[in-house]
Amino acid sequence: MAFFMEKELTEKDAEKLVQYMMKISKERGAKVTTQRILIFKELLKNTKNHPSAEEIYEKLKGKVYGLSLSTVYRALSAFEELGLVRRIPTPDGKAHFEIANKPHGHFICKECGRIIDLEETEPSVEGLKEALREKGLTPDICNIVCYGLCDRCQTNG
Predict the structure, then answer these.
(1) Which residues fall within 8 angstroms of residue 149, CB to CB, at 6 or more apart?
(2) Helix or strand holding residue 10 (H, E)
(3) Nearest 5°: phi and psi at 147?
C-alpha cells in the first residue's frame, strides 16, 4: 500500500501514517522502537525535501538518546523493505529518501543537487509499469529520474 500525500500533512494524518508504519512493521516482524518512530516522523515532516540519512541524523542527534548514523540507515532500509519509504538515486551516490506515496518521477539538478518531484508527467511511473506488463514483464520498482539544471541554477548561471 502506498501513501497518498497530495497536500501538506496535518498532525492527525501524520499520526495515522505513524500508526500504519507501526502496524506494518509488527505484522512483518520488523522492530518498532522509539528511534524508528522518530526517524519516520522526521522523514514525514521533510519528505518533500527528500532528505538524506545524514540530514535526518543531524536533525535528530541531539533529541534522540543513543542515535547513530548507522541506526538511521538501518531504519530507512527497513522502511524501504516494508514499502513505506522510497530511496531516490542521485548522481553523487548519496541516498535521499521520501515517504512512498503516489508513484512519481524526479528531476535532480546536477549543479545544486535539488530534487524536484515530477507528479503529473508523461510517461508516468504507472504508465511505464503498464507498458512493461504488456510486454510480459513484471516490474517491481520503477524510477523515472531526469538530470539537468533546475530553474534556479539556470537563472544564477
Answers:
(1) 109, 110, 111, 157
(2) none
(3) -120, 145
Helix H or strand E encompassing 145: strand 145-148
* Sequence spans of domains, the chain: 11-99, 105-156
What does the alpha-carbon distance between residue 120 and residue 60 come to, in Å, rounded to a whole number?
A: 33
Number of residues written out for the chain: 157
- Asked if 78 contacts 31 with a C-beta cutoff of 8 angstroms, the reply is yes
Q: Flag whether pLDDT at 3 surpasses 80.
A: no
Given a cut of 50, whether residue 82 has pLDDT beyond it is yes
pLDDT in tens, 13-50: 889 999 999 999 999 999 999 999 999 999 999 888 89
**Which DSSP symbol is given to 137?**
-
CATH of 11-99, one of 3.40.50.300, 3.40.50.720, 1.10.10.10, 3.90.180.10: 1.10.10.10
pLDDT at 8: 65
Range list of H helices, 61-107: 69-81
CATH class, 105-156 region: alpha beta
